[in-house]
Amino acid sequence: xxxxxIRSNIYLPVVRFGVVTSxxxxxxxxxxxxxxxxxxxxxxxxxxxxxxRTGILAAVLSIAFFNFVRIGRRPFWLQHHLRAAxxxxxxxxxxxxxxx
Amino acid sequence: xxxxxxxxxxxxxTGAGFGVGAGMRLLPVGLRAQRDLKRWKAxxxxxxxxxxxxxxxxxxxxxxPSGRRxxxxxxxxxxxxxxxxxxxxxxxxxxxxLPTMLAADSVVEARCDELARMLAVxxxxxxxxxxxxxxxxxxxxxxxxxLMARGGxxxxxxxxxxxxxxxxxxxRAATESRxxxxxxxxxxxxxxxxxAGDATSNGLSAFIPAAGREIRRQGISRIAxxxxxxxxxxxxxxxxxxxxxxxxxxxxxxxxVFRLVERESPISLRRFTRDExxxxxxxxxxxxxxxxxxxxxxxxxxxxxxxxxxxxxxxxWYVMHGSHPAAIVSMFVPPQxxxxxxxxxxxxxxxxxxxxHTVVAEFVTLDQRKAVKRLDRRIRQIRRTHIRADGRxxxxxxxxxxxxxxESVRDHVTGSREALVEARFYAMVYGDPxxxxxxxxxxxxxxxxxxxxxxxxxxSIPGVEAARxxxxxxxxxxxxxxxxxxxxxxxxxxxxxxxxxLAALAPTESAWEGAKRPHTLCSTPTGRxxxxxFFDSASISSPLALVLGEPGSGKSxxxxxxxxxxxxxxxxxxxxxxxxxxxxxxxxxxxxGRHLRFNIEDKRTINIWDYPGLEHGEMPNEAEIALxxxxxxxxxxxxxxxxxxxxxxxxxxxxxxxxxxxxxRRGGVKHEPTHSHLLALLET
Lengths: 100, 684
What we know:
The complex is a heterodimer.
Chain A: E1 4-5, H1 8-11, E2 15-16, E3 19-20, H2 24-41, E4 44-45, E5 48-49, H3 50-70, H4 77-86, E6 90-92
Antiparallel strand pairs in A: 2-3, 4-5
Helix pairs in contact in A: 2-3
Chain B: H1 3-42, H2 44-63, E1 68-69, E2 74-78, E3 81-84, E4 89-95, H3 105-120, E5 128-137, H4 141-150, H5 158-176, E6 181-191, H6 203-218, H7 223-234, H8 244-264, E7 269-271, H9 274-285, H10 304-307, E8 312-313, E9 319-321, E10 324-333, E11 338-339, H11 345-348, E12 357-365, H12 368-384, H13 397-412, E13 420-430, H14 437-459, E14 465-468, H15 471-481, E15 495-498, H16 499-502, E16 520-523, E17 529-532, H17 555-569, H18 585-590, H19 622-635, H20 643-660, H21 675-683
Antiparallel strand pairs in B: 2-3, 3-4, 4-6, 4-7, 5-6, 5-12, 8-9, 9-10, 10-13, 10-14, 12-13, 13-15, 16-17
Helix pairs in contact in B: 1-2, 5-17, 6-7, 12-13, 19-20
């Protein structure tokens, strides 16, 4: 029989710093929010603008979060858990009153 | 001290005093009440109240059950295809499983390549081709076919029939204990169809223009009423609706893809009729159903309520679909680093998978332009990682391997009939129906074992990593795994590769199903119970069987079984066996057959009529005549004490000898009397 190749680099997601490329938009959004909100509010801590700290903190936390939901977990772990948390575990049968 | 502080202190002390006092009195009362309540709950009156409350709760839940209403993506059946709520169409096919297990490698390779071409041929992006191999315990089809073929057993060998009946009982008992498996393959093709008005005919796209029109008509002062009326006008149930001409055009669009798949498919596909389609979808959605209701031929009939008439419940490792617990075992890592065209035999020919399960392989057609762009982007990303800050190029081994993989795939999809495809591979495993707690416990124990067996079977394919789905994932995936519910939306279980590699994941092969009218039943190492018929002229023009095996492997036993089954099944069957090792002697003794032993020292021919001196024309003595008479009586199945038959045969045999022996003379060719001479004389 002829060997047909299965190449893992095609089906596995591309990862940068442990974050899948498709998730980087959320990291950027979190970082931007972490920077923009204190900037607009003009907040300062110990005379240093707060956005410098919160921007970096938001980036680090979001990268850590996406690493947490990916490493050692199955694909779409977060999506499935969010869905399970939002939806009832019971999909009840259709009843006649549903038509009313 | 200030007067306010003094007053405050007094008030606080008074309040604290009241509090402590009340607490001291109320605490014993509360404890006593708790004890009384506990005692009352344990009493018969308390238990009766509990039962009444429980009943009331259950009665209330009958009318308003908990949970979210179940939904289906199948809106109806249009002609002989499923019409989905998003406007897509699905057609189901009964596919023929090919018994190519013992065929040449080239046959299996060629089928896999043709399947790959079918997957790679240009189709609308999002088209899903799903193979569903439904397997379960064999109910004894081969036994039924054999009993039909045997009929009443008239004119069959009585002793062989008794042995044969024991054999059938053995297989019947094995069938009842679910020792054998049986499988059926169906193929489902879902084609997404977009008509011109689909995007604007529902949801927000329909509401905004309608609201604008209403506000202009009723004026800004009546904006609330205008919004309400436009919402009522445009609210829908999520089903894409089209005018009849658009619907017909959309169906024709899907029809083209269906015809393309049928044309390109290497396996014979038979379209499900409307009734077959309804039956397959209904029984797939309602596990408890034993019959299928009649579906009225009403255009636009919404069948979702029929399909969703059973609750799916569960937040554990299994879901309860009706009374059946079900779980999913998914392939997370495909066979690596290579897959072979016969790779799925680990599942399709596994003798242990006799429990109810469905192996599903889905192939999603990708937008090739976008897929290739994504590939190129990834190659660029990897190349960029070589360049260091000082401008030097240095490639890590991992990057080199990744680049090699990506570039080889890119080469494959360039200018050839190859395409990138996404595949999902999983198995749905069902437990026995359970209506009580004890039944559920037993069913879950079996289901867990079956899931483990399925995982082991999948992982026996080199490189595969498979596991049972976790509770949250199972809840998300189970609905999409039902018959007709699949779609192209990602589930996280996708494997992207070229079609010629992934085509090997399609389960299209099975073991030979056996003869239609078998005389012999036998089990196979692939866990099937099949029947053999060496005399079926429709499939075997010249019956010749060759049994191969090492010494002691059971060739003679198998042949003895076949001989016995033929004698017990086929009317007036006669068997002549030549067996140097005398392995068939016990069977010949039990069935009262005639056993001629070979004696290599004796130069006589194998003929009961032969005796020393025949070649010289000498007449036989009485003992030699008696031997022939006894043999003839045995062949005629005449009782040994039948003197009349013995006298007649003695006279006729003597007459045959008188007629035939004088034809021999010294130096001439030996002439032997035979049973044919006896028969000819009896006839005259």
